[in-house]
Amino acid sequence: MAPAVLIENLQKSYGSVEAVKNVSLQIEPGEIFGLLGPNGAGKTTTLRVLCTLSTPDAGKVEVSGVSVVDYPRIARQKLGYVAQEVALDKVLTGRELLQLQASLYHLPNNAAKGRINDVIGLLGLAEWADKRTGTYSGGVKKRIDLAAGLLHAPDVLVLDEPTVGLDIESRFVVWDFLRQLKAAGTTVLITSHYLEEIDALADKVAIIDRGVVIAAGTPTELKDKLGGDRITLRIREFSSNPEAEKAKDLLQALPFVQEVIINSAQGNSLNLVVTPQSDALSSIQKSLIEAGLPTFGIAQSRPSLDDVYLAATGRTLMDAELAAAGSRDLKAERKQNMK
């Protein structure tokens, strides 16, 4: 059986900007696959190429064995795409919007009517289906958008940030729905900024940063590769580089410490990988006191997907998001100053 999605050595640039440098992914039928990374990492560009909305510069991209470049019309029949931003005609009712979507997919009238009723029931939209979409809450808008993406029963449903901006109750509704889709055999590719969302839903994960895949596997595999517990330590609220380096050298000498990373984006805090043991925190604090170093804050936890990202890049996903936002703000300011 062909993979549900096959991407090999994908490259895509916009002028001098390399949005995707070299991305390779393989997603099996019936999987929920999570794609993680900060804004500007290349996630959305990868999805746009997969969904035939953008032409790649190089690489191979297939859906259920069909090339999206050579046979885009056939590929689109096998894909459902739900973008991050919900775009609904406020005048239409939910049912009318789905009827319009069905006509765009050339579904026969009888089949379209049955399918519309199916997706309305699947997503619990009966109460709102005949009301104008302009009256919907954010959670209901996202559900009708999902219904439109599923209307033609695609092999692969592609979701770009499906729960961004939703309250926790609406997020859980979407989560349960995606689990139902998986149980029914639909393949789901999802991008998200919510690490706990990917951890809870995804069978496999790929982390993309600066246009390349830096880690891939099941969430458990990626976390187990790190080994040991995580300890986050702050010498001070904002430590100097020499002080952080001194603490790093000191802690790396402890027999249960496997690795120490200085996180400069968070006030030179230290992120440690340690062999699990009950007295790790007290031993670290004792060593710092003996060296004349204070402890502003310290905490121990099991590995997370953010730890995977930190180990691969030297920064957390939140740090990467903040850096990307700062870069966009700086570019906008320069552009404004040039006017």
**Rounded average pLDDT:** 89
CATH architecture of the largest domain: 3-Layer(aba) Sandwich
Q: Which structural category do the helix and sheet elements fall into?
A: alpha/beta
Radius of gyration, taken over Cα atoms and rounded to an integer in Å: 23 Å
Q: Mind describing the biggest β-sheet?
A: 6 strands, mixed
CATH top level assignment of the largest domain: Alpha Beta
* Share of residues in strands: 15-25%
The spatial strand order of the largest sheet comes to 6-7-8-3-9-10
Q: Report the helical percentage.
A: 40-55%
Give helix and strand order, one letter per element, not per position.
EEEHEEHEHHHEHEHEEHEHEEHEHH
CATH fold naming of the largest domain = Rossmann fold
Low-confidence stretches at least 5 residues in length (pLDDT < 50)?
A: none
Distance between the termini: 56 Å
* Tally of helical runs: 12
Total domains: 2
The CATH superfamily name of the largest domain is: P-loop containing nucleotide triphosphate hydrolases
Question: How many runs of DSSP E, i.e. beta strands?
Answer: 14
Cα shape = elongated
